[in-house]
Amino acid sequence: MATKRNSNETALKNVLIPIVQAIGRSGKLIYLLLFIVITVVVYKFFTSKNESSTVEYNSNLIEKQIKNVGKLVVTEGHFSEVLTYKDQKKYLMDLVSFEKKALIIVNADVAVSYDLRQIKYGIDEKSKTVRILNIPEEEIKINPNIEYYDVNQSTLNPFTGDDYNKVNKIVRANLAKKIEKSTLKTNAKNRLISELYNILILTNTMGWKLEYNGEELTKASVKKLDL
């Protein structure tokens, strides 16, 4: 856009300069002044049109950039835990019991992602500002690897599908508590802001600003979030 504008200005100068010189040599100053005034008005008219079209083009480009982001996986974490599962069945007024138990080792990979197709933002063309108004809730995906050791069971109380389902629910509940107590979600949010800045870095190159929570995102502020 800038290159096209510069070429138009150069072409305009190449046409106007000989005309101005010719009028100057003729000695008719009044025509020269009138010609200069008309030229300035025409130049202002065309340059103002170019600037408005540039703003519209820039805002459309930014909107397209945001919509193309899609789902973004921001942070991954790893959690481990060891637990013992026990279950007991009693018969004959609790005089006879059959117990089953197992040592369980869990290694889980956790991914925190955001669906940025649901992001809410505003574009202020007047101040050349992109404002991130709301970020959707994070999506937490837990992939546990559950291994059973020292399995003890009896014929009258064997391990069944219900036991494995119970263990899976217990493991996921424990992991959810660990995730809440950890810094994983906070780190994910900070990393998300950093990624948004990188994705929309073109706003700076075009003279636009990017704001979140009322604060302008800069290279320095984003770098602090990554620490």
Instruction: Name the helix and strand elements from N-terminus to C-terminus, one letter apiece.
Output: HHEEEEEHHHEEH
List the domain count as a whole number: 2
| Count of discrete alpha- or pi-helical segments spanning 4 or more residues | 6
Estimate the mean pLDDT confidence.
Answer: 75
- Percent strand: 25-35%
Helix fraction bin? 40-55%
| Spatial sequence of strands, sheet with the most strands | 3-4-6-7
Rounded radius of gyration (Å): 34 Å
Q: How many strand segments?
A: 7
Descriptive account of the structure:
With 227 residues, the chain is an alpha+beta fold. It has two domains: 2-67; 71-226, no CATH class. The protein has helices spanning 2-26, 29-67, 161-181, 184-199, 202-205, 219-226, and strands at 71-91, 96-115, 120-124, 129-134, 139-152, 209-212, 215-216. The strands form two sheets. A four-stranded mixed sheet has the order 3-4-6-7, with helices on one face. The protein has a three-stranded antiparallel sheet with strand order 1-2-5. A hairpin with a 4-residue loop joins strand 3 (120-124) and strand 4. It is rod-shaped.
